[in-house]
């Protein structure tokens, strides 16, 4: 993957130790018992990955992370590494790829490896890596101009979810804050929950963006129990700018949040920090894993 492609996909996609009995029972035939081990969405260290993919992944493993969510898939590669190469690296380091982020492809039709361009191969590659989930990461502004657009997104998720299911994977949708902004007297996120098939499409709730939208995630867990098997564990700093923070250094009550994991249907969580004030993302994710290991 060249730098131009990486930067484009990065922009487009940017945008615990306990095991719960019901989650274990639900996934005993398809998922290993490390489903609640520390996870990381590697977008957090995107610049380091572009410089040294293998070395950066080793640093993640050395910090104690186990489960990985990838991004920037393109034409059978991650950052210039083939799927067999990535698979070997992960195995050697004791890392497990549980999920990956993808785009619709509607605004980047030439990009190979999206939900509308070579989706079958994208799913096959995800299955080869041993993933359980594949996630629509972000909707560009052009893709979300109306509620009809969101209905088209739901249709695409259902269709792609069927392909994923046939390969043994689960399709999911990852939110930002804009999905909770009322449009035509409706909440787009609620429409997605309504229009998406409960079996074919699950939801990865980004707890930072949900909080930033002024929404209570626990209320969603209780209303739509079992539909949130993936979380982005991302903290919010105190202050008007609501900047990103290392987990445990912000305003989100994580102990309370994780106490509702069973209701949510949580399988895996992934630490993520979109940006850092320090400019040292590895130090930030080290603080995050340290905090989570203390409370879980």
UniProtKB/TrEMBL annotation:
Keyword Isomerase: yes
Ranges in a coiled coil: none
UniProt xrefs under Pfam families: AP_endonuc_2
Keyword annotations: Isomerase, Signal
GO molecular function: isomerase activity
Highest taxon, organism lineage: Bacteria
Signal sequence, renumbered to the chain: 1-25
InterPro entries the UniProt entry points to: IolE/XylAMocC-like, Xyl_isomerase-like_sf, Xyl_isomerase-like_TIM-brl
Keyword Transmembrane helix among UniProt keywords: no
Domain Xylose isomerase-like TIM barrel: 58-294
PANTHER family on file: HYDROXYPYRUVATE ISOMERASE, INOSOSE DEHYDRATASE
Protein name: Sugar phosphate isomerase/epimerase
